[in-house]
């Protein structure tokens, strides 16, 4: 439990503060305000209900305090303005200080302010336990009325109030500054006063410096384990075993940043008057539980619509292979491993056996229980023994009863002030992956001879050059001098978070650029400039020796379609895919499929497994596709598309029609929402169509007999339906013209494609012949033929019905009249001319 | 989500990640992380069915390997695929109607029946001769490869890796038939063209070393792809079950990089590195929600959606911003701005400099290490550069300090790179070459040590301790391999028992101390150590001030002492540690007549410190303190 705090800040706003200090661009008034704001911000960041602050202005235009009297006997406590009585530190207070505090017209008396503050403090804190502090920020120009000092000092002392004074022109510990006699006298006076109340005086520089220093948040040490450290079994062998009462504290613990809460942008779309609490921007999470549709069910009736089940009807289950094993919560608890709270030594071993990478977690320190001298002695012998033997202890640690046992090691720490054991959790057998990596020094030829020179091997010359480089970049030139000691490097994220929250709070204008990261923190993440300069010649030498070349390639995970996608991710139309080289990826895969039909077994089989060609939208690594996946998952999470659909980024073999429809839907939604995710994994209509086309060829070419024909026909039907523009909701273009344009492109795509299919199927030079497939298409006539005028939206190039019939019935087209095979889009006019 | 990627998705519970990010990345992981598929192909020639020198029968050894892998997969990565093909069998079972090839298990997720089937082969309750029989060496290797290719191909689901584990002791198949030989090679190469990798588990025949040069080298050379994969160090062929099992286990999990980033050594000098997780706490798989009230147990998926509290509209990610409370106000940021608060560079490593190895302190640890290995595919020349750097660092006993951003949304932090040279043991690589990446704590993450003491153990005590430490020394050191995680094993066992309706749920907890042995070896010496400790007088100053205790901590402390067996005995010698302060405080209060302002706790503490047994009522306590000061 942290103690309560009450702090009063007295800010001098007398007219003399208008002056700038020598060499400063802003007035003393602005400078003192900055200091006060920084002090207040620290309190606000603490975000505690038991931290109270007050701001009192002295020399203000207004008089606002409980003690002020203005009558015939004279005027007391004038120009003392209590901006906020002791209360919680809020942003409003900070804003008030920033925007509304102005210089007064009369010199104020800081002693008046102090007495008002003391009065407030006493009334507020009564006799309760508070950490009490008063800060005076002043230029010490105004005369002080020291009358009644004999009462003030004891009150400060008795109440345990610490008084600190920050003076704009105080000497500080560096230099003395020119000042008036009054200023000098005042400074001397404050110094005495502060010393008596165990407070301090600061120059403005000192204060600023202290405020900008990074402090680690003080965390009160709390033992995570209070129990015994055992050696042997204290129960069966009480005399021949050790059982030392110890306390274990965290020695390292990752300081987490507070997580941001979600804020709804839509909130502001309604008027605040309609809302009971105004705009809260709050976001609620709703959870629904739906029965998962399994593959075999989906095939059956009713498509397995979403069935929602209540949350309290759920049971936990684990997978055991393919089997779902439901286990009731009570059973889970009952079958759990029973353990007793303990820290017990399994044995000792030489420290050199231990590998640093086996440490898994943060570290704890283990001390004998405070105040227990016997424990102190018993632990002490052990840790001095471990030191002398250069050994560690292996131990089993159970934090509380029935907690999961952890394996840990204990090693000694013997410093001047601190002597303890450190505890670190280490790996179990299951925690270690035993991967094998190629040797970096041993390369053998096919006949088993070791190669001495190879482009992958380091040369002695390069190793020597490397050593020079290493020596030049020495971060620990001597025992005393060490750069980047963890104890001195502060997490930039912690400071950055504070900085930005403060900044945005005081500058709500979102367009105002955010301030830069503190240069000191920034520097921690970059090489030290002097060292870098020194080491550059050695680095240049290495650059020459190593001759590293960045591999410029269609990046991992971005081959085939994805590469294509990169090129024209901004076009939603399919034309981009079809025209010219943009379709290289798809054309290539299509091409190999054609080759597949011409009897090259390797290529044919390749397409079966989709390893390198048509299936290569396969995701070569999580990294490459992360963005696109994110977008789709986001959509899924928002409930706009069914979850299982969000995953579809490829037309797969198992259910191509479903995949295709999902992709088209995702693409449409994304495009309607204006989601534009660059990079791999982003689904476009063009991508879906292209993959579907490739799938049809793949199915035809790999079908064993007519095995896969039916599937291919389904694909064709689905593709045709989409391209015919039958579902206008899937047209995403905004303007009518664009809409027409898209529709037209789609119709053309189909008509071109079905011609290709015909040509492929009837190609007599391939084996096996696929004429039977074409016959199947002919059977489905209207469902699979060329799109006719009647079927397509106005403006698209449908063919005449006669032409469509002719196309289906004409057994074989002259090869020369067939569309180009290269995957280049045929010129439309030529094509039509041919057909006519 | 899917625990196929249990190892990987677990990683996503990275302390850095926001909860949100976790949801996302986990989805991605399950989406993109691919499942492994392994096809066991086992030679059933007569020599495989005869005991080798150590009595093991190679065929059964291979079956045991397959079984182990299945058992591992079934709990840790249940969506990986495993299949088994026997060849050289008298009976045949495959879709192509090839002779002497028996597809025992299609490639599929492991399940209980499959394991039971293998068990029955292993314990001979399923008779080999009856079920499969041997064809006495008659088979066509090419057809086996063809069958394997089909098995991999017929599986519609996308898989990330396809590997064929070939168990044979015939190093020269089809020795006399050149056309069959070359046909086999062509088939094997075809197979590899489809991305299927052949791992050869070669077994020696009695008195005859398996020689890869005879046949397999040609095939295997091909299977080395340009990934750092396996240009793996040559492994000897193995004879014993143990060795083979080890080899299988090493290969069982497909090696996969967590990330691939540029490593900037200096201006104009970048190489590529990949990062791996070689050590990370393995946890129980995520549970799934199921609905058991229907006819069958059905899995349930959770659909989460965000709703705007003000407008009750559903929110898409684009509608969301983020805020922190600051002084009673919501301070709002965009998602990008939030990310920019902790990520200060593009993904990658930036070298800051080098330190001697001893500058890396053991207690500066916050999480598990990662392992770095060069990535030739992103920067040509990375391997030779990395290798030179590694060698130079190891020679000079240096570590590198770098700033590191693993992924676009991850926190930037400082890390130490520790060189690790390759170690080859009798059974292949024991330690791979590379750099261990140790995340370093920030100053914000380091807590000061809470208790001070100047007490140093006198020599007699130290000597007594040395005896105990020597006697209980584990000569081979600590090896993680020897300690299975008992809670994990218990969990698996419970699952297995529940799935198979078994009763036995007991496990052997290898982390329990072997106390009887310890007492037998060192009991007397521990007793002696305690005696010595007892005899040592201790100065009060050595106890040092204790950390501040609060109400809750005192409560817990008293609990501990009640179950610990020591407190009453020790109370005598254990006065509170900050006596002086307490005394001054009480004296001041007494002097100013303010004792009534003191807390009961402080009054009691003070009285105890001066060896007065405190009363129970505050009035009594004050009276006792007053009496004390009057007397002193």
Uncertain runs of chain B with pLDDT below 50, 5 residues or more?
Answer: 1-33, 222-234, 548-577
Q: Trace the largest sheet of chain A across and list its strands.
A: 9-10-17-20-19-18-16
Given the helix and strand composition of chain B, which structural class is it? alpha+beta
Question: How much β-strand is present in the residues of chain A?
Answer: 15-25%
- What do we call the CATH homologous superfamily of the largest domain in chain B? von Willebrand factor, type A domain
Would you report the number of β strands of chain A?
21
Shape descriptor of chain A = extended
* CATH fold assignment of the largest domain in chain B: Rossmann fold
Largest sheet of chain A: 7 strands, mixed, barrel
Structural class of chain A: alpha/beta
Main β sheet profile of chain B: 7 strands, mixed, barrel
Q: Return Rg of chain A in Å.
A: 39 Å
Low-confidence stretches of chain A: 298-303, 554-645, 676-681, 813-836
The name of the CATH architecture of the largest domain in chain B is 3-Layer(aba) Sandwich
Mean pLDDT of chain A: 78
- Largest interface, chains and sizes: A-B, 270 and 275 residues
Strand order of the largest sheet of chain B: 6-7-14-20-17-16-13
Write a concise synopsis of the structure shown.
The complex is a heterodimer of chains A (836) and B (632). Chain A has 836 residues and is an alpha/beta fold.
Question: What does this molecule look like?
Answer:
The complex is a heterodimer of chains A (836) and B (632). Chain A contains 27 helices and 21 strands. Chain A is 39% helix and 17% strand. Chain A has 836 residues and is of the alpha/beta class. Chain B has 5 domains: 1-33, no CATH class; 36-252, von Willebrand factor, type A domain (Rossmann fold); 256-446, Ku70, Chain: A, Domain 2 (Beta Barrel); 459-543, Ku70, Chain: A, domain 4; 568-631, Transcription Termination Factor Rho, Rna-binding Domain, Chain A, Domain 1. Chain B has a 7-stranded mixed beta barrel with strand order 6-7-14-20-17-16-13. The longest helix of chain B is centred in the last third of the chain and has 21 residues, at 515-535. The model of chain B is unreliable at 1-33, 222-234 and 548-577 (pLDDT under 50). The interface between A and B is large, with 270 and 275 residues. Strand 12 (283-291) of chain A pairs antiparallel with strand 9 (298-308) of chain B, so a sheet runs across the interface. Chain B: Keywords: ATP-binding, Chromosome, DNA damage, DNA recombination, DNA repair, DNA-binding, Helicase, Hydrolase, Nucleotide-binding, Nucleus, Telomere. Chain B: It is found in: Chromosome, Telomere; Nucleus. Chain B: It is an enzyme of class 3 (hydrolase). Chain B: This is ATP-dependent DNA helicase II subunit 1.
